[in-house]
Write a structure and sequence with these properties.
Elements lengths: L8 H15 L6 H8 L3 H8 L2 H24 L6 H17 L8 H7 L6 H24 L4 H23 L4 H20 L1
Pfam families: TetR_C_13, TetR_N
Keywords: DNA-binding, Transcription, Transcription regulation
GO molecular function: DNA binding
Length: 194
């Protein structure tokens, strides 16, 4: 249509997601989003929604992108639960090591910001965080852990996974992050042998 500016919606959402990921919800302004996406404020509002709506879209995009990778990593849990959990952590470690991406994790940052988020955004952030535990629990149950053991290790592994993102932002080295993962994987291996 003549006179109407066209833009790539996926590119704009990716740029907004990276902006929120880099600076967090609270420290990202509409001006920041405008610079990141190349869209003016009115285009952001009309095409992407207000800040809360855009953030939720970005959080969902992030959760889906990495959720698919986590699901693939955990797909062998029934036959190889330890290898599956290691592969799960490898997804995080690879994301952390990617120089094209911001440090940390958008979900972890969102969870830490829950006290200052609107109730709907806070609930969404909690839900995104909870999906990781549920994903791990299902995999660990398939890997022959009892319901109680699967829940305990899922909660622990999800917490470790989020701490990897926080530790990376705080300057932990790849070797330190790998050592953290090793402790959890070793504990799971011992629990499965018991």
């Amino acid at each position: 249509m003549a006179g109407k500016k066209q833009f790539d919606m996926d590119a704009a959402l990716n740029a907004a997601m990276i902006q929120f990921w880099r600076d967090g919800y609270t420290d990202t302004s509409l001006d920041d989003l405008s610079r990141a996406t190349g869209l003016n404020r009115s285009s952001i509002y009309s095409s992407l929604g207000d800040k809360d709506t855009l953030f939720l879209r970005c959080l969902d995009r992030y959760a889906a992108r990495y959720g698919e990778k986590y699901d693939a990593a955990l797909s062998c849990a029934a036959s190889e639960p330890v290898a599956a959990v290691r592969a799960f952590f490898d997804v995080t470690l690879e994301r952390i090591a990617d120089p094209e991406l911001p440090d940390g994790c958008l979900i972890a940052q969102s969870a830490m910001a829950i006290p200052v988020l609107s109730p709907s955004v806070a609930a969404h952030a909690q839900q995104a965080l909870g999906f990781q535990r549920l994903r791990l629990r299902a995999a660990l149950e398939a890997g022959r852990l009892t319901d109680q053991g699967a829940e305990a290790f899922a909660a622990h592994a999800a917490a470790v996974n989020q701490s990897l993102a926080v530790m990376s932002r705080a300057g932990a080295t790849p070797a330190q992050l790998l050592a953290i993962v090793g402790v959890t994987v070793d504990a799971l291996s011992q629990a499965l042998r018991a």
